[in-house]
Structures are given as C-alpha cells and as structure tokens.
C-alpha cells in the first residue's frame, strides 16, 4: 500500500499554465521591457529636436550673416543677400506705391527695389560696428575714412533735416523755384541720414576707446587740411549771413546747398585712405567686407531704380537734371569693386592666415628691423668688451 507522498511522486509533472497573449497590449509581444521602449522613443525624439534646433540655428546664422560674418564667404553672402532681398521686397509690396508711375505692375517692382536698396544701405553701417565690438579692436580700419565719413553725414543730416523741418527754408525754396515747387526730401531721407550719423559717430568712438584714448584717432596731414578747410567755410559762411542780414548773396538756402556739395566732395575722397591702408598692410582684415557688399548692392539697385523709373515715365530729367548725384553712385560702386578685388583676390591668402591683431604684431618687427640691428650691434660690442669677472651675456 502506497503512502500519500509516494502517490504524489507517481503523478505526472504539472505543466505551466499558458496565458493567452493580447496583441493590442504594449507590454507583450516585445523582446524589450516597457521602460526600455519608452527610453528609446524619448531619445529618438530628443535627437530629432536637437537636429532641428541645430538646423534652425544654422539657417538663422546664415540669414544674419551681414552682421555676424567677417569673412564674406560665398555661402554666407548668398544667404545674407537672399534674406535681405526677401525682407525688402515684402516691405515694398506691403507699403503704398508711387502712383506717378504709369504702370501698375511696375509700381510694385519699383517699390520692392526701392526698399531693398534702402534696407541694404541702412544695414551696411552695422557690420563694421559689430566687427569692432567682437574683436575689441579697430586695427585695420582707417581713422581718416571714419572721420571723413562722420563729417559727410553730419552735413547730409543738416541738409535733410533743414529742408524737412524748417518752414523758413521751405519758404525760401518756394520763392526761388516757384510756389508749386516740390521739396523732394522725405522722412525716410532724414531718418537714413541721422541713422548713418549716429553709427558713424559710434565707429569713431570705438577707435578712441579700443585704441586707448584720443591719440588713437591719428588723422593724416592731408585729411587734417581738408577738415580744417571745411570747418573754416562752415563757420565763415553763417557769419557772412549774419553780417549781411541774409541778403541774396549769402543766405541759409545756399548754405545748405554748400553742405550738400561738401558731402559730395567727401564721398569722392573718403575711401582713398582705406584703399591705401589695405595696400600697405596687404590685408583687409579689420575692414568689414559686408559694409562694401551692402553698399555695392544698394548703389546698383538705386541706379537701376532711377533708370527704370525714368524709362517707364519716358522722362530722363531725373538723370540729366542731377548728373552729380547720378555720377556719385558710380564713384561709390567703383571703390566697392576695388575693395572686393582686394578682399577676394589680392589679399585672400593673407586674410585667411592672419587676424588683425596678429597681423600688426607680425608687421611691427619688420618695420623696426634697422633699430633692432643697431641694438644687437651695441649689445655685441659690450659683450666683447666685458671684464672676465662679469658673467657672459648671450643675445638670443
């Protein structure tokens, strides 16, 4: 007779109970535990977000390349100018048009072109200021150019502001040119001139600040003579107006015209010192190429709009009536081309190899080679004549 324990051993082993799987349940049918699956999905999503942020950051950086880029490489130039064109065209299409143009479709084209070049000229003052701030230096930037630029925009601001705000000047203009004569100075002209004056002042102050004081503003003798002549005329002429009580020969309207001629003259010569400085240093490092690219873009589009407007209205008096202004646009473009040749062709290798600070540090020993030779010669003579008790001095 078998005992209960023996009967238990004689029974077949119990099979494991199989629970049917639910195909819709996320916790079954997978080799990975639920927490690992969640981590994989979260990491994948985080990686996509990081890639998207990096891509967005690169895109925004390229769009802002007129302000952030110092090299002016082809990719940043294309992206920066494209964003500028899109923003300017959008503003032009959304704002009121010039209804004096006969073609409706061309009114939109003219407005878009006008705002693109206005935006290009307005932004062109920022790259140099930002570059100086980032480098904490103004080496490579000509003080002559900066001072002339400041003086020119001071005259231009006084001219535009007087025509726009002064009832006396407006009345004198109508008396001379007729009661129906229209003053062409608009609010955007005044805003542009004052904006340029402020940023030109900031650039001059940067030269003083980063250069260690007012001594850093070293202006060459020819430019000093030019500035002295301009100040002399601008002081004597108002005195003559006061003495003659504003008679026909000397009056405030002609004084403003004189300021406009001063601005034109400065525009003819202000870039020459910077061209010479780049040649002397064999480099354009420290001179923002974006300033030139934006000025070149604005100048070309400004002339293009003027020619197209005249052709659309079949009236070229806008060109023939003011040839000086039309010619100055080409002078500015001519100097812009010189700077682009210097930056991209003549000194491209030097620009890639050297920063402005290191360049000047490398050039200093070359400039003082004769002085170093004399010092080494004196030191050698003293070493040859030293007494035996003195330690030997080795010049390295």
UniProtKB/TrEMBL annotation:
Protein topology in the membrane: Multi-pass membrane protein
Source organism of this protein record: Nitzschia inconspicua
Annotated transmembrane regions: 74-93, 105-126, 138-159, 190-211, 223-243, 255-273, 285-308, 328-347
Name of the protein this chain belongs to: Lysosomal cystine family transporter
Stretch list, region Disordered: 1-50, 367-396
Record key words, sorted: Lysosome, Membrane, Repeat, Symport, Transmembrane, Transmembrane helix, Transport
Family in the record: Belongs to the cystinosin family.
Pfam families, alphabetized: PQ-loop (PF04193)
InterPro entries, sorted: LC_transporter, PQ-loop_rpt
